[in-house]
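Predict the 3D structure for this chain.
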Amino acid sequence: MSAAGALALHAGLACAQNYPQKVVRFVTAAPGSANDYVARLIAQDLSRALGQQVIVENRASLAPEVVAKSPADGYTILLNGSSTWLLPLMRRENYDPLEDLTPVTMAVTSPNILVVHPSMP
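Done. Predicted structure below.
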């Protein structure tokens, strides 16, 4: 039993690759959006830390679909807001967020505020 465990451990180590071996791509919303800004900040620091280029690709409303249809290899990463999870509840999308995407981390939180003209009661 322990021999099988040792073999499994060594097999896993033998197959492991250094990450990243190529450019990492953050896919996010429209240029100039809050998601775009955050993606560029993270990409800059991540490029430095990983020693590999991390680029930001803006795909507006198609961002979740682009990532869902990409290989699940960790080189195409979605940085998007709640619309990724909410849109499929309201209309038919070409991806299923629960089947096609895997959450990794919460990168940022931002408050939402509602403002009106001071003359409104």
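The radius of gyration is 19 Å.
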